[in-house]
Amino acid sequence: MHIRIRNFGPIKDFSFDLTKDFVVIFGKNNIGKSYAISVVYLILKSVLRIEKDRLAYVSMISDQINALSERIREELSQEKEMDIKKEIEEIVKDVGQSGFISDFRESLCATFEESDSVISRFAKQRTDIRLCTNDVEITAEISKKGVNISEVVIRTDSMIATRGKTENHATENNRLFLRTRGDERIALTKFVENILSTLYNQAILRIYYLPASRSGLYQALNAFSPIFAELSRNRGFLKGTVGIPSIPEPVSDYFLELSGIRIRENGNQDILEIVGEMEKEILKGEVLFDPETKKILYKPFGTDMVLDTALASSMVSELSPVVASLKYIIAFTEAKPLLFIEEPEAHLHPETQIRLTEMFSKLVRAGVRIVMTSHSDYMFNKMNNLILERKVDIASTRVVIFNETDEGSIAKDIPVEELGIDDENFLDSVEMLLNEKAELIEKLNRNG
Fold first, then answer.
1. DSSP letters along 62-99, please?
2. C-beta separation of 225 from 293 below 8 A
3. Does 166 reside within a domain?
4. Is 419 part of any domain?
5. What does the pLDDT look like over 69-127, one tens digit per residue?
6. Which pTM does this prediction carry?
7. Is residue 30 part of a domain?
8. How far is 317 from 309, CA to CA, in rounded Å?
9. Closest Cα partner for 289 from 326, 317, 324?
10. Could you tell me if residue 69 is inside a domain?
């Protein structure tokens, strides 16, 4: 599946390829990196509900299917074949609008609050999101009126619906034929289900989101959750309205995942071994979870101390949620996990950033898909070395740089080759510092 975002907030154009296992997005601050991965996360979350809500979706379209079935019977009674491509596209459009696009709209409102936050701040062009599979392309337009599917295109030119199933045959001019008489209603229902299933089947995974400022967000939400619970129990005694602050959906999901940790055994040993390496080589201690207090704790090796991560170093407090997610949640995921993580280098020494990049490459080889944003030259250059060492698979890796334009930021792919990544991302900053140093030395020599 491919997802394309256009004219969204600070973003002019960004594409996401779900077939890649390791995606690293570089760029300056306030350029749209977090916007991009937040939107992709919310889209995937909505699409993944298709299978759960499949029966409800079928119920939504029953009247349209029945009406189309009657038309087909009339035409086929005269032994004609009927091109039903446009009709099927309209049905998919309606069911998608009432189904996963409706879910996405609610998630978008919960995350960005105002429509002005998502409509392009640079250009007067349409804000839209496009989902593409081999079989279908769905475009949803975002405006002050909401999120609405503007177009559905069945992309294959080789589909024929027939007696209760969908078969592939050659056709002409990208038309979709239903030729065989029989139970047309079953055939049409099955066909629409198959199209929706292509979205779900290409997104079968378990998604997780680790936002920037992980430690601060977790500690703050953890501290306020008992207060909200107490207010809820005693709402009858409140004399005024208590406003609850808005929390972006990826952040609330992050907190609920960590707060709902269950201590289990027999997780993915490859992932757990990498977690052990992270604890030993980087954290120098063990990350624990207390199911009673619902808190993440840190136990330094060689001591009896068990600390709240808020009392540990900034490096430990920022990495502990990452380790806890891997150790207690992702290692026990049956579906393939996809981890979105913002700025994993925050509060880390350059040496630690380098080690963490290698740990991420190991996680990818262990089956964890990773999408991360970063500003770190050290992580960028370590990825280069990992490619040279053949520890990162070129075919499944994507490196993206966000570039500023007058109409918003555009995501550009940086070529990933056997000799590494074309290193243009940080050259301007390095060159600026070298030129500044040369000028200062020259100035000292003149004044000396």
1. HHHHHHHHHHHHHHHTTT--EE-HHHHHHHHHHHHHHT
2. no
3. yes
4. no
5. 777 777 666 655 667 788 888 888 988 898 889 999 999 888 887 656 677 666 578 89
6. 0.84
7. no
8. 5
9. 324
10. yes
